[in-house]
Please model this.
Amino acid sequence: MEFFREDHIGFDDTVYAVSELTGHIRELLESSFPGVWVEGEISNFKLHSSGHMYFSLKDSDAMIACVLWKGRSSGLIFKLKDGLRVKIFGKITVFEKYGKYQLDVMQVVPVGEGSLQQAFFELKQKLFEEGLFDEEAKKEIPKYPETIGVVTSPTGAAVRDIINVISRRYPCVNIIIAPVRVQGVGAAREIADAIDSLNHLGCIDVMIVGRGGGSLEDLWAFNEEIVAQAVYNSEVPVVSAVGHEVDFTICDFTADMRAPTPSAAAELVVPDRDALFMQIHSFQESMSGIIYQNIQESKNKIKSISSSYIFRSIENRVKQTIQYVDTLEEKLTSLMMWNLERERLSLEKVSENLEALNPEAILKRGYSITMFKKDGRVVHTGTQLKQGDRIRTKFYKGSAESTVDFVDKED
Model:
């Protein structure tokens, strides 16, 4: 069969192998759509035994195949199933073996109140079972912080409310803002990173994490597991302040304290300066009253004691003791005088005895002492003498020298 040449006018005559053409198509698609968000409804969902997930994303007019690999599916916070409306972020790839393009899924976000509520309850149950909501893990919020960290949007009303309330109530505190996106793609990662960064500063005493009100979808970043894990792992106490009083997020359950609004969080983390001044003034008045009362009571006690019989009895006892001491002193003096007199008399007697033994006293009674003149030896007996010895005789008064003419040795 012969084709008309005009059918080929203006076309490339190159003949491609199927794999070559499919490879060119893959390169063209993947380079044109390196990352894209697609919204639709899940159908034909299949969880393979390998752990990979295969499904289609469709709307009323078209359908695209999707694959979510096992390593990424473990991060899902809800279960995928047919009929669930989602937003998917991924990149376009071509499965060359069958020549079809597909979406390589990186992130799945539920769309619509029903899907979001389902995802919320599933993640809440999962984290509850893992212990992230345990009361024992909650840290105490300091009463008098010096530095407060705030993780929120830098342009929203929430940050202005927080700063205004803290500045009015407790102006001496430092405020460090960690600016983040609070909704949209990548917001959850920014919030988690900001919480980690404030922890690493080492000077934060307490942290407020939150934003103003909005729909469930607007608040969804605070329902993601990455934020819950960052709040749970924070060494700094975290106060969650997301939305309004009726809004509850996963961040609220994981935080150490939940505040109904950002303004309420600011009131919870700092004391009221005016109330503190009033309390201090009240303490001062109370202490003054207590001190005055104690002084008066002490005065009355002293007065009562000084006029009591017991106090007078003590005074009398002191006087009696003094008198008793005086009596003892008199007795001691008399005893000392008696002892002295007795010793004097004894000494006189000893003196008399000594005087009686004194040779001088013997001489006084008419006796004399004879001594050899040459050496002064006392002559006791006549046998010591011989004729011609020179002797000296001592009397009570005076002495005499003589020569021995005769010695009677037997007399």
In short: The first strand starts at residue 36 and ends at 47.
